[in-house]
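can u do me a favor
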């Protein structure tokens, strides 16, 4: 997808992939210049979306996730929550860690891709 916007007319993929696909930046400079997207470095995956930032690091058997609300540790085999610490006070309701799971999937899928080397 090159974000041409012609998806509704003749793209072989249904829907609008330019709106739903994850957008990765290959340099920190290009990532910093945008408001939304991913940047994969040697040791972490960063996602930002209009001022909110999420960071995922994998070290040994641990997966460490940080958002503006909480930091959490997951087991890297089963992606089971091991520990969570809220930065201020625990939010009302349940905190949604789907972004952590999404980022872990992307990291596992792309970490050995030579384009990010």
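np, heres the sequence
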């Amino acid at each position: 997808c090159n974000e041409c916007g012609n998806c509704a007319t003749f793209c072989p993929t249904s829907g609008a992939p330019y709106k739903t696909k994850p957008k990765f930046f290959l340099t920190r400079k290009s990532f910093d210049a945008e408001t939304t997207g991913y940047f994969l470095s040697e040791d972490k995956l960063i996602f930002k979306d209009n001022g909110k930032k999420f960071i995922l690091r994998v070290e040994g058997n641990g997966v460490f996730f940080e958002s503006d609300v909480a930091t959490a540790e997951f087991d890297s085999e089963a992606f089971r929550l091991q520990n969570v610490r809220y930065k201020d006070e625990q939010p009302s309701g349940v905190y949604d860690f789907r972004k952590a799971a999404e980022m872990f999937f992307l990291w596992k899928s792309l970490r050995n891709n030579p384009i990010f080397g």
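The mean pLDDT is 86. hope that helps!!
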